[in-house]
């Protein structure tokens, strides 16, 4: 049986990549075809679950080669590195390159961000990882060409695997609205860790414009402030959003739920939502876990046109608005509100597409990646 270690942030650390890795590992374990373990990237003291074999001190450059040696002697056949520039120490996360040269087992990399215009340092890091890794996984087809053209990654190393979505039952929209005292309201939601790059002020502006014509609209902003943002700036961004809603006179049309949501809570709120909105500002965003969830559960989605949104919402699965435009977002929302038949059609298309994003399907994709690495490794030894 294959034994694969994952280098990643991991719960209870509040991080989207941590949740992603936990979900993926659990789905892989359910197949009964693989053994997994975690090397947790830590920025503090956490009470980790038993699947975490050991941890890596994110900001300690000397810990990287030491952890590489522990990986080599762990009994694992291969390593999967979850990559985002901000979760490793050094400039643009460059400390990771103090670990990979010392690995004696094959490794692959899952990219959670693929920048079309990287800094010199960012390009150097991805190009270096590409040279040493067996496979480089991206979650969008849009990123394949960028990896080839910008970073020089050989096509045969690149694999596309969907961002997974938990398989939990959808609740009744009307029943859940009743429980949340939202009966008769058209519910638009956004969830995830709050940070200025999410562009939620434009979402609130859009709700203000839509509410002039359809006062029953309500916007649920779900999730706590990103820990890194909170540590540096406190709750300034959330306070700014609350004040924006007050200044626009729509405090009754915007509701904040300030906590880190469980998967069950996320699905509950998605179930009662009529539309999901991502007004993100990042034009280069390669993937969005929150958008993946909304697609997986067949929501009508209104989004700014970052690459992952363009890909997910193609073929009539949602509506794309302009960047930094409350007017454009509100027009899309009103289009959905004014045409229930369009809402139903979009939900049907999105739900059909989203079935391929369930974690059980995604786990099978990763199993095939790991098998391919194993086969080529054994082949190399037999040559």
- CATH topological fold name of the largest domain: Rossmann fold
Radius of gyration: 21 Å
Number of helices: 14
**What order do the strands of the largest sheet run in, or round the barrel if closed?**
3-2-1-4-5-6-7
User: What is the CATH C level class of the largest domain, in words?
Assistant: Alpha Beta
Report the span from N to C terminus.
Answer: 23 Å
Number of strands: 13
* Helix-strand makeup class: alpha/beta
Beta-strand fraction estimate: 15-25%
The portion of residues assigned to helices is 40-55%
Note the overall shape. globular
Descriptive report:
It is a single chain. This protein is α/β, with parallel strands linked by helices and 383 residues long. It folds into 2 domains: 2-164 and 358-382, Glycogen Phosphorylase B (Rossmann fold, 3-Layer(aba) Sandwich), CATH 3.40.50.2000; 173-356, Glycogen Phosphorylase B (Rossmann fold), CATH 3.40.50. Helices cover 43% and strands 17% of the residues. The protein is built from 14 helices and 13 strands. The strands form 2 sheets. It has a 7-stranded parallel sheet, sandwiched between helices. A 6-stranded parallel sheet has the order 10-9-8-11-12-13, with helices on both faces. Helix 6 packs across helix 12 (326-338). The longest helix is centred in the C-terminal third of the chain and has 24 residues, at 359-382. The two termini are 23 Å apart. The mean pLDDT is 95.
